[in-house]
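Justification of computing resources. Each target in the renewal requires a structure prediction run like the one illustrated here; the chain below, 264 residues long, is used simply to show the kind of job we budget for.
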Amino acid sequence: MKTICITVVIVFIAVCASVLVARGDNTRDERSREDLPERQGEGDEPRFDRHRDGNARHQICTNALTGTFRTIVVPDGESCTLYRAIVQGNVRVKRNASLFVGPPGSSSIRGNVEAERCMTVLLSGTVIVDGNVEIEHCATKSGYVGPGVQIGRNFECRHNSGPCVAYSGTVRGHVKIDHNASAVATDISLNTIRGSLECHSNVPAPTHTFGANKVTGKADGECAASLGFTVSVGSFPPTAAKAAGGRWVRARSLLAQESFRGPL
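Resulting structure tokens:
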């Protein structure tokens, strides 16, 4: 009788252990599936990369997108084009990736544009970025071409092997161009800059091919006023003044004319 009881107990323990192991494997499989980033192919419906916390969802962009999104990530080696887009957070451009934001229509990025070791980042036409535009260690020409480009904070183009371009835009913070080495000179022309314009250690030195810039703060280094980079400036243009709630008057009126649809 004692032998039978011991046998039953051993069998019961073995069954319980098997159930627990199977349940643990299923849990790990589910977590692994959640952690895998989904990629968007040509013609696919928008897909998202869910982070471990289950809250942040990034739109993975590998082709052309229009609509409204929380944040956007351009993966390594991919190319993304945004038009008639509203991004409620940041846009991140990864290694050897490319980002183009421009016509048709206007686009708004309410966070930052962050590019590190990218191929290129180019904003053109009516593009409003509430935060910073930061381009570092990128390979080919990067920056913005207006008119219509408005940057709410700073524009920084640094340590790139391609030239920077800053043409006919409005920057409410500082413009910093430094440590770029390229075959073609960086061009900084016809901008309205609320902060300072700082250029240092660029090879070749920047130019202002299309005209001088209106700079409220100081202009120094390779972009000094004595080199013709600035003209006298009065008050900052009212079209770039911020309205209550942090949105630009002109930006809001332009975006109101467009129709935006897309996944949140």
